[in-house]
Design a protein that fits this description.
Number of strands: 0
Low-confidence stretches: none
Largest sheet: none
Strand content: under 5%
Number of helices: 8
Shape: globular
Radius of gyration: 18 Å
Distance between the termini: 21 Å
């Protein structure tokens, strides 16, 4: 461990046990990227729901319910298979692929919105596709934590992951609401697409991590 890493570890240890996992360089990359990616995801969902309610339908609760259902429809059916994939193949590679696909999914929907070509069925397709990719992303993401921290720190790292997710649930919709009020739904979708780019913020989650297990 070089002097810079030693000072960083000492800082996080001094903060207290709550954030002790952040003393690990790999986990700091993962935590930062996951937080930004989760914020982007909630911004996307809020923008997408507002698009369906106010632009593609006359405030149809049925259409909104279908979008929400499609996002999660594939997960219970693909969970056993996606878990096996996460066990068999390098989790970092899986995450790089899933994050790239999620980014492309968001970018294509943004492109349809910004060019005024989006239709309701487009949102249905992209919502389902997001759920399919997410069903492979989640098991690999959760299992990846154990490869970045010592066994004694796994409970702390898992707790920080939960904190990150719940913080994003508060920050993301609020940020999306401000953007929607100021400039419409498209910017929130573009931000989320950028967050899933392996070379941008959300990609820090895996692109900066040096383990490959």
């Amino acid at each position: 461990m070089n002097p810079t890493q030693s000072r960083s570890a000492a800082f996080w240890h001094s903060v207290g046990r709550t954030f002790v996992s952040l003393a690990q360089r790999n986990y700091r990359f993962y935590f930062t990227g996951a937080l930004l990616s989760n914020i982007g995801t909630w911004m996307q969902r809020t923008s997408q729901d507002w698009l369906v309610l106010t632009q593609l339908t006359d405030r149809s609760s049925s259409a909104l319910g279908i979008v929400s259902a499609l996002q999660f429809l594939a997960i219970p059916f693909l969970a056993p298979f996606s878990g096996a994939v996460a066990d068999r193949y390098p989790k970092r590679t899986i995450l790089l692929i899933t994050q790239t696909l999620l980014g492309l999914n968001c970018a294509l929907l943004w492109l349809l919105v910004v060019t005024n070509n989006v239709e309701l069925w487009h949102v249905y397709v992209f919502a389902f596709a997001q759920g399919v990719v997410a069903s492979f992303d989640m098991p690999a993401r959760q299992a990846f934590v154990s490869e970045m921290v010592a066994d004694s720190l796994i409970p702390n790292a898992v707790g920080l992951n939960s904190m990150s997710f719940n913080a994003a649930r508060l920050i993301g919709p609020g940020a999306a609401g401000l953007l929607i009020a100021a400039v419409g739904v498209a910017p929130g979708m573009l931000i989320n697409a950028a967050h899933h780019n392996p070379r941008c913020s959300g990609g820090v989650m895996v692109a900066g991590v040096s383990v490959t297990g």
